[in-house]
Design a protein that fits this description.
- It is a single chain.
- With 459 residues, the chain is α+β, with helices and mostly antiparallel strands.
- The chain has three domains: 15-191 and 439-458, Porin chaperone SurA, peptide-binding domain (Triger factor/SurA peptide-binding fold, Orthogonal Bundle); 195-313, Chitinase A, domain 3 (Roll), CATH 3.10.50.40; 316-417, Chitinase A, domain 3, CATH 3.10.50.
- It has helices at 79-92, 99-125, 132-147, 151-160, 165-185, 194-206, 227-242, 247-254, 276-283, 336-350, 356-365, 383-389, 427-453; strands at 43-46, 49-52, 70-72, 75-77, 211-221, 265-269, 290-296, 299-310, 320-328, 369-377, 401-403, 407-417, 456-458.
- The strands form four sheets. A four-stranded antiparallel β-sheet has the order 6-5-8-7.
- A hairpin with a 2-residue loop joins strand 3 (70-72) and strand 4.
- The chain is globular, with a radius of gyration of 27 Å.
- The two termini are 29 Å apart.
- Residues 210-307 form the PpiC domain.
- Keywords: Chaperone, Isomerase, Periplasm, Rotamase, Signal.
- Residues 1-39 form the signal peptide.
Length: 459
């Protein structure tokens, strides 16, 4: 089920050949066995599936104790396949994952590989081909864009972390196959009328000035009898994230929402589009803050505030700044007390400069260095500096900052180009977004059908 019922638009990967760095993360909820001895009143009805409230499990078949291998419609997924894909996740998190977490992650990786196998099989059955040359080309692009290195260096990196180029290329083939299959079998049958697009444009105009939030989510489904266990799992994920784990990586591997494929990114939404529990939490969050687990209908949510803005309103953080940085090194071995005195004297001297045109001369007089950059985006600066510098006028400076080893630095604002008001998406852009959203929903249904009809043997 979807973690959040909302109208949101996320640009989907199948629009281009850029490979996403994670496979579709999804999970199948276990179905408990039911017996005819229970009365209908003591049962939970889920469509045609009837589950007794007081479930008794017959036998000791624990799926969590199975080795991580499977045969999917005749195609084998080996333990090595799982190990090599898991190694990529561990490398992304710098190995900061405990053994218990690795066990859960391994099961999720196996589920991802099963989905990936089903997607490749379906594409092949539909005569949708992905050439080896395309896979190699995308692999080279990943090496260049994500690693800044050639394919040989990337091969060496993958081996070093315990993975392989074959594992990553299989993931690339799976995603390209699925994208191409959707383009042929789903996208041509999706239609968004002009009236629907115009109605959405009017809603955007009416919402001008209201706040929008860009949120990341990790949704974990929980049946009533599994709530406590799922809640504990969610708490452990939060703990790993607070210790520096990658939110995007965890969302791709753990989240059971449709946003898992894009690292949990919900895109820009308004609080009214969220369930009350999430809206209340998001309202008081600051960018970069993590909150959860939050109980929502059907499970638990972990949310991360990526950013926030006002609809169709120019954001000061999009300003382009011209800055000068004045730096003064400290002598080696200086005490903290002496460093504070030097920093105070340094700030006082720089304060005598009559704007950016005079600061170089003043800095030279005390042996300080000056560097300039007239293309600094305010949004790219650290939070505390970002908010403070937007309140400066040209020629004014921030308080000094630094360390005993790096010395003391002062930023001076020399100019600022304010952003133009956001006019919002064009008709064509919004239509594409709406089409992509509908294709994604059909894709989820398509994959559910493949899972339901698959013959899977576990070893």
């Amino acid at each position: 089920m979807l973690a959040i019922q909302r109208k949101r638009f996320i640009k989907r990967a199948f629009r281009n050949c850029a490979i996403a760095s994670g496979a579709v993360a999804s999970a199948l909820s276990p179905l408990a066995a039911s017996t005819a001895a229970y009365a209908q009143s003591a049962q939970t009805q889920q469509g045609d599936i009837v589950i007794p409230e007081d479930v008794k499990i017959f036998g000791n078949d624990n799926p969590n104790l199975r080795r991580a291998t499977a045969v999917v419609n005749g195609d084998i997924i080996t333990g090595t396949d799982v190990d090599q894909r898991l190694a990529l996740i561990l490398a992304a998190n710098q190995g900061k994952i405990d053994e218990e977490e690795k066990k859960r992650l391994r099961l999720q990786v196996l589920r991802n590989l099963i989905d990936e196998t089903l997607q490749i099989q379906e594409a092949k059955a539909a005569d949708v081909a992905v050439d080896d040359a395309e896979v190699d080309s995308t692999f080279a692009r990943v090496a260049s864009q994500n690693f800044g290195q050639n394919t040989q260096a990337m091969d060496a990196y993958l081996k070093r972390v315990g993975s392989s180029s074959d594992s990553l290329k299989r993931q690339i083939r799976g995603e390209l196959s699925w994208q191409r299959l959707l383009q042929r079998n789903v996208q041509p049958f999706i239609n968004v009328s002009d009236d629907e697009v115009n109605e959405m444009l009017e809603r955007l105009k009416a919402a001008k000035g209201t706040e929008e939030y860009r949120l990341g989510e990790i949704y974990l489904a929980a049946t009533p009898d599994a709530q406590q266990q799922v809640y504990q799992n969610a708490q452990q994920i939060v703990q790993q994230l607070k210790q520096g784990g990658s939110f995007v990586a965890y969302a791709r591997q753990y989240s059971q929402a449709s946003t898992a494929a894009v690292g949990g990114d919900l895109g820009w939404i308004r609080l009214a589009q969220l369930p009350a529990e999430l809206a209340t939490a998001a309202r008081d969050m600051a960018p970069g803050q993590l909150v959860g687990p939050i109980e929502v209908p059907g499970g638990f949510d972990i949310i991360y505030l990526i950013d926030k803005r006002q609809v169709l309103t120019a954001d000061p953080r999009d300003s382009v700044l011209a800055l000068k940085q004045i730096s003064l090194n400290f002598p080696k071995g200086i005490s903290e007390a002496d460093a504070n005195k030097r920093a105070e004297a340094f700030a006082k001297t720089i304060g005598t400069a009559k704007g950016c045109g005079d600061v170089d001369k003043v800095a030279t007089g005390i042996g300080a260095q000056v560097v300039a950059n007239d293309q600094v985006k305010a949004r790219d600066l650290p939070g505390p500096i970002q908010s403070a510098i937007l309140n400066l006028s040209p020629g004014e400076t921030l308080p000094p900052f630094g360390s005993l080893t790096d010395g003391v630095r002062i930023l001076m604002l020399c100019g600022r180009d304010d952003p133009q008001a956001d006019s919002g998406p064009s008709f064509e852009q919004l239509q594409n977004q709406m089409e992509d959203d509908r294709v994604n929903k059909r894709a989820q249904m398509y994959l559910r059908d493949l899972r339901r009809d698959a013959i899977i043997e576990y070893n």
